[in-house]
Structure prediction request, 325 residues.
Amino acid sequence: MAQYSRITGTGSFLPPRRLSNADLAAELAAKGVETSDEWIVERTGIHARHFAAPDVSSSDLGVEAAKRAIDAAGLQPSDIDLIIVATSTPDMVFPSAACILQNKLGIAGCAAFDVQAVCSGFVYALTIADAMIKTGSASKALVIGAEVFSRILDFSDRTTCVLFGDGAGAVVLEASDTPGILASDLHADGRHVGILCVPGNVSGGKVVGDALLKMDGQAVFKLAVGVLESAARATLAKANMTDADIDWLIPHQANIRIMQSTAKKLKLPPEKLIVTVDQHGNTSAASIPLALDASVRSGKIKKGDTLMLEGVGGGFTWGAVLLNF
Ligand code: ACO
Prediction:
């Protein structure tokens, strides 16, 4: 049985339709909703996001990211023996996006399931895959974050619809004799269900309740800055490491102000903070693997670097994974 699991390949995929803040503001203005590039940039750091075409699902985006990660790992789809998809916008009620994606990859037989932890989904999924590899249930796992959040946005609510985007990121996590994932720390506090939710459901063949995203932005903001620091510190303590050991901080890409405040609390210089929220918006479970892949492919993140990945989101959920890349 392998002692460790290690990321051996990364991949990502963005749907081609890119909307700058000005593009989105113009579309919203036509519906009588007022916003501006200036407001969005100042409050969030977001300049643009990508939206998927109406017939494109999370598994469509996820499978493209997965193929790139498998390729980067030097593997074939048939080598994969576990698929976990973190998503809050699955293709259908069931089966899981992971099963649909498995079929699109042209493979069958390996375990495949979704994880629902909203914007913390990827760190949850990575932690599960790590545990399954360490206990011998898998040896070559595909861990994917894939979302089409544009489907659940209320485009009459300017406080939320300017924040989110669509996309997917993936990693291949393999059994290894040398350390990759060093420690992780996951949490949830269901008392805060109401501050960030899509409260609708399907019942009797109809959508019951409101199936659009609701968020109390300030409540989320306050909780996020506190838990991102505590999760990072708990993870470092488990690995007997300190802030100074972190080469790159990859927090959930929701808001530049939350991300910068976390980096400051961890005494990290701004240049160690990976930022893609400016170009992707908040892609929920996809944001961390998208940011990771972009930084690996640009040459910023190199083999051997120590990474702190941090998720926070609806639930309320949060968590961190510390790893040697
Ligand atoms: N354009 C122009 N004006 C706007 C917009 C907009 N898009 N949205 C809100 N405003 C206005 C408001 O109406 C308000 O106007 P008023 O003062 O006249 O009433 C003013 O701007 C301030 O609004 P606030 O909501 O107080 O703005 P705030 O500074 O709190 O920023 C934001 C809002 C960006 C949502 C912030 O609270 C935030 O980032 N929260 C955290 C969100 C987050 O991190 N989510 C992560 C988890 S996501 C997940 O799990 C799916």
